[in-house]
Amino acid sequence: MLGRDAEWAQIEQLLDLAPPGPRGVALEGEPGIGKTTLWREAVSAARAAGYQVLATAPAEPDAALAFAGLGDLFDGLPEDVAASLPGPQRRALDAALFVDDAPDAVVGPQALPRATQSVLRRLGADGPLLVAIDDEQWLDRASARALGFALCRLRDEHTRVLLARRPQSDGALWPELERGFGDSGLPAMVLGSLDMGAIHRLLATNVDPDIPRPLVRRIYDVSSGNPLYALAIARELEASGLGDDREQLPIPTTLAGAIAQRLDRLGPEAGDPLLVAAALSSPTLSLIQAVLPQFVFGDLDGAERARLIEVRGERLTFTHPLIASTQYSRAPAERRRELHRILAEVVHDDERAHHLALGAEAPDREIAFALEEAAGQAARRGAPEHAAQLLEHAARLTPADAIDARRSRIVAAAERNWTAGDGGRARALLEPLLADLTDGALRARALKLLGRIRSDDFELATELYEQALAQAGDHPRVAAEIEDALAEVYANRGDQEAAVRHVERAVELAELAGDRELLAATLAGKAMTAFFHGDGVQRDVLNRAIEIEEEEGDLIPSEYPPSGNLGCALFWSDQLESGRPQLHRALSYAAKHGQEVMRGALLFHLAHLEWLDGDIEEAQRCTADAVEAARAAGDDQFDSYILWLKAFSAVSRGDLEEARARGNEAIDLAGRIGDNFIVCFSTSIVAMVELWTGQPESAHERVAPLRDGLVGGSQGFVGSLTLPFWWIDIEALIALGRLDEVDPILKHLFTRARGAQNPNAVAIGHRCRGLLLAADGELDDAIDELERAVTEHERRPVPLDLGRTLLEKGTLERRAKRKSVAKQSLERALSVLEPLQAALWVNRARDELSRVGLRRAAASDGLTPAQTRVAELVVAGMTNREIANTLYMSLRTVETHLTKVYRELGVRSRAQLIASMSAAGDEAIGGGPRPSPGPPE
Known about the structure:
CATH architecture of the domain at 5-190: 3-Layer(aba) Sandwich
Number of strands: 7
Radius of gyration: 35 Å
């Protein structure tokens, strides 16, 4: 700790209990600079301060094992913490930590990260928690993936993270935490060299209190202030015998050289035991003896005296990882291979496979097969990245006369890398291999995976899938998967006819293959393709798929389960209340199977539904969760969906500049990918902004081609997503005075809306016709049309659509001098729009209401129109649930309004509220009738 006062002050600040939420730091510096010393002192200080500490200090061999780091961190995990986990998470944790044998079914790649998050949150809820990892560059990638996912999702927990790492290393955890941990990531604290005074004190304390200053200067110059290097030099000089001529002794010019000289001074009996220890992940005296039968404990006494190792009970540890790596690298390659072959006979599980790979002299059929078997076990334990590494080793060690087996292992390694989220590595394995792959199922698998990897280019993905399908031959399962993928990519490109053809063939092939999970996925795909084609919600097909979903089987291979498809189809048809429980059902399925990508997609859709339905608090929560899921996925297509969602929420609130910015970003990103849906829906949002900011010509030019292209003819569904393609264009043409162009578009809208049996779409048609009539000067007929629109809205309410229609109705009624009914329409519009926080429309409704000139009852002075309307319906005798249904609010919003009404009017009960409102109603001023207490007509 000499010379580290400034760094220690930062550590103390990190461990301060006062600031809530997650924070951390990465200690960064060259080998020997003192990272481990500072790390150990921080761990001790945290324990003394009352922190619960999870710590691991991986060595280089650990990097090749699955979950070695997580095993250290969770060693001794309280049973009640593990027992509290949901079933899939508990099974994933048990498999990762070898509590049980590897499961028969593959653990989903997201089950363990989710379990890790649950454990950290549970531990953090009990008090301050420190997660401390030394030599992060040696943390195995399976542990890094789980920890990165979990730590980046902590928000309120009092959790601190302390890493020690080498600069420019390829550790997998720190980059994740640097971007996404807490509010400000995980900054690096770079440890520089010690000054000569600190080096002098270090050598005087640890080597020789009387060491001459000229010698200290020489050591300092050679070591450049690196404390471990300086100590190694001084101890080497001490071991050589310090005398008057000590300044003439040779000084090693590198840290590795200094350590090598210290190792050379040990007796010959220590060399092999230290080599065995350096090759092991967790060296013990028993393991050393199993490899070296003549070994006795005394062989290591000299190494222990020289402070190269520490022996505590059975466990042996090197005092610095450089000592282990130096000892290992000094051994001849032949000796190292021989040692690994011996170690493969005395260790088990993952470590055995690691030693088999390193001990092979040449390609070996049996070793390659053993590595492939070990990869299967790693995959079942939820470590696809480790499985990929083992499969690559297996391919490397496959004999030349087993070329098909080698190619199969490379394809399997690519598939595991893809599952682990490393699409770049998967692509690097597959693309060079394609030229060598002969026709058949293996080539089909490779092309299919490349198609998935190249989702950033839908045209290329389509070509790859088509090639894969041509290679599938008489393998119905492979062909079904490819047909299903083709249906999805064609749908995203806007070619619904092609999508229908491919998905119907996918269902036939899944039936032929006898794979029920695949059948469920293709049935759901068939239903959704029909829906996008304009054939409505295929409940019979989806219910058959949902029956399979409810069985205890393997994971359904689709973006989300059939219940999620049903939920989306319902709410895209504006059946919001029916769609919500299906999406929650699908979210439960995703949680059960540990599917984070699936969960993220469902959260995106649920957020969209809640924005439509006006539950702003729930919409914001789901949006935040979906944004986190997108960040974890690192997928461009998912990112484009999130940009569209942000644009949609902004335009719903009336934040037009934010909507324009996010919408254009979504258009650019989705356009690069080739996702026609997101391009179209984002374009409609930008067109809305242009319409409402006085650019109707530009709005018209944007949406007219979309309507004719995406949902033209007999194709396309009709709901809140697609309705803007009609009403934006109609309103833009009215604003431009081109009324004669509106009628054919309006007729088309009514035809589609009635064909889809969507009352909200019919309501939009009546509103548009009313606006057209008003523009033509026919106010009475226009108001009648808007009355019809309100009636249709009430059959299938979408709050913002209803609010806008009421606003237009009240505006026309005011223009027609119908002040009393205008006031009622506008107040009701405000009661719908205010809870939506739709500032653009709320402000316009208030402005229109101010022009009416009628005052409300005295008791409602100080209340918003929404609060007044809730109070009026209480007077009418409605329950909170009935009020919510009448006003298209959530129950929570009604309760919030009532709390504010009680406070404003100084009442404490419904009876007092009714009495207060009734008395005030008798004193109403302004000549207009008292607002009707009953539900609006």
